[in-house]
Design a protein that fits this description.
- There is one protein chain.
- This protein has about 375 residues and is α+β, with helices and mostly antiparallel strands.
- The chain has two helices and 21 strands.
- It is extended, with a radius of gyration of 32 Å.
Length: about 375
């Protein structure tokens, strides 16, 4: 049996050797005993190896945790994976901006000289930078791993201050207030864990803020201006880019049909064309999102065109159809999103497709193709 060389494992190697020598490794009974002993020794080796790895990793972890965060002006987290933050440090993404201002014990309740409950508060400023309301469900985690959720609404008179509206943070707004936790004692080395999911389904992440002042904090500085609602602007152009995706109309062409169904084809309206609209969707999101199948086409005169029933249709010109409607992170899909029966003289076509949960995108698709 080959064992790793380590001072802690030397006694085990001696036991293994002694077991084999004393029995002679001759009879089948002794072989079975040796097999059982070797299985026990393998378990001991695994246990000791894990203990050694933990002991070696502990100094590095403790030294990195002991480094205080630099003080000074506000430091913005990068747009990569969300880092572990300290109080006063701002985390910003395309859809939110968050900073923990501070913490305090708001009140305690005692009975017979013993603390029975503690109201612990965390003051937070959150900016909703997106165009859709959002909700957060922050948890307070203690050093033991125990997690606490805030009450749905705290009605006591000993509040820390104005409550943060967790369930509905309006779009393009700034909210500042206290998240309060009803605990049995003052938390030890607490951390705030906040799932900050993009409301339309393009990204998911968890923000972790160390609330222990011993691990460092940043001097609070002037926050950027609060977000304000901007008037909706008409979408123009055949391409639209956002922090999460790029979508564009790559082709609009006439489609010649071959009817392959046994049922009779539907009647065709005079002076109309069947056209296919090809799109390219490229993801820069961190989560898979959908390209929905309810696209519509409208021309400059206000005529709306709904997709043609694909059942029984075959066309060589307008292929491939966009059958894959899930776009993976950093992936892309391309194809003819639909076939539309439009007026032959249609001008100023605009295609509207829906991405993610509630994201509608309108793109220029030109005029009715002449060939």
């Amino acid at each position: 049996m080959l064992l790793p060389r380590h001072p802690c494992l030397a006694p085990i190697a001696l036991v293994a050797s002694f077991t084999c020598l004393s029995s002679g490794c001759a009879s089948s009974g002794s072989n079975e005993a040796l097999i059982r002993e070797n299985e026990r020794l393998r378990g001991e080796v695994a246990r000791l190896s894990a203990a050694i790895q933990r002991a070696q990793a502990a100094p590095a972890a403790s030294s990195s945790a002991a480094q205080p965060a630099p003080t000074g002006s506000i430091e913005f987290a990068s747009l990569g994976p969300p880092p572990n933050l300290v109080m006063g440090q701002v985390s910003e993404r395309p859809w939110y901006r968050v900073v923990v201002v501070g913490t305090k014990v708001c009140s305690t309740r005692e009975r017979a000289g013993e603390t029975k409950s503690v109201l612990f508060g965390v003051e937070v400023v959150i900016d909703n930078l997106g165009g859709k309301s959002m909700r957060i469900e922050p948890e307070l985690e203690e050093a033991s791993g125990q997690r606490h959720r805030p009450p749905f609404s705290y009605h006591g008179e000993d509040k820390c201050g104005p409550e943060l509206p967790l369930r509905d943070i309006p779009a393009a707004s700034r909210q500042r207030g206290w998240i309060m936790y009803d605990l049995t004692s003052i938390p030890m080395r607490p951390r705030l864990r906040v799932p900050m999911n993009e409301p339309r389904g393009f990204a998911e992440e968890e923000l972790i803020v160390d609330l222990d002042p011993a691990h460092g904090s940043k001097t609070a500085a002037q926050l950027p201006a609060a977000p304000t609602a901007q008037p909706a602007q008409a979408q123009t152009g055949s391409t639209r880019k956002t922090p999460y995706y790029s979508v564009s109309v790559t082709d609009v062409r006439r489609c010649t049909l071959k009817w392959v169904s046994r049922r009779p084809p539907p009647p065709t309206e005079a002076n109309t064309l069947l056209v296919g609209v090809e799109i390219l969707v490229e993801s820069t999101a961190t989560k898979t999102f959908s390209v929905h199948g309810d696209a519509t086409l409208r021309d400059s005169r206000g005529y709306d065109y709904t997709p043609e029933d694909r059942y029984g249709l075959e066309t060589a010109e307008c292929m491939p159809l966009l059958r894959q409607n899930e776009v993976p992170p950093q992936g892309k899909v391309r194809g003819f999103v639909h076939l539309f029966r439009i007026k032959a003289d249609a001008k100023g076509l605009k295609l509207t497709v829906r991405l993610g949960r509630e994201e509608e995108v309108t793109l220029d698709a030109g005029d009715a193709p002449t060939r």
